[in-house]
Write a structure and sequence with these properties.
- The protein has four helices and no strands.
- It is mainly alpha-helical.
- It has one domain: S15/NS1, RNA-binding (Helix Hairpins), CATH 1.10.287.
- Helix 1 crosses helix 2 and helix 2 runs antiparallel to helix 3.
- The model has no long low-confidence stretch (mean pLDDT 95).
- Part of the 30S ribosomal subunit. Forms a bridge to the 50S subunit in the 70S ribosome, contacting the 23S rRNA.
- Keywords: Ribonucleoprotein, Ribosomal protein, RNA-binding, rRNA-binding.
Length: 89
């Protein structure tokens, strides 16, 4: 199940850095986190969905790369974002 348009709009509104921002690093990480959380719930029910699990690992890897970039460019923004999204690190 994909993120609905309303959920996506809420996430973008919450994490954007300026009024017309839809693709900043913070927004991308928040959207990936929402997708990862949905897929994690999916795998609790469908444990043998190995193809989907491969996609999940790709999303986690992409999020990790974006988090590393954000940490290099904006340490305080990184700390704030992981606290808001409850990402362990």
């Amino acid at each position: 199940m994909q993120i609905t348009v309303e959920q996506r709009a809420e996430i973008i509104a919450k994490f954007r850095t300026h009024e017309s921002d839809t693709g900043s690093t913070e927004v991308q990480i928040a959207l990936l986190t929402a997708r990862i959380n949905q897929l994690t719930e999916h795998f609790r029910v469908h444990a043998k969905d190995y193809a989907g699990r491969r996609g999940l690992l790709a999303l986690v890897s992409q999020r990790r790369s974006l988090l590393d970039y954000l940490k290099r460019k904006n340490e305080s923004g990184y700390q704030k974002l992981i606290a808001e999204l409850s990402i362990r690190r």
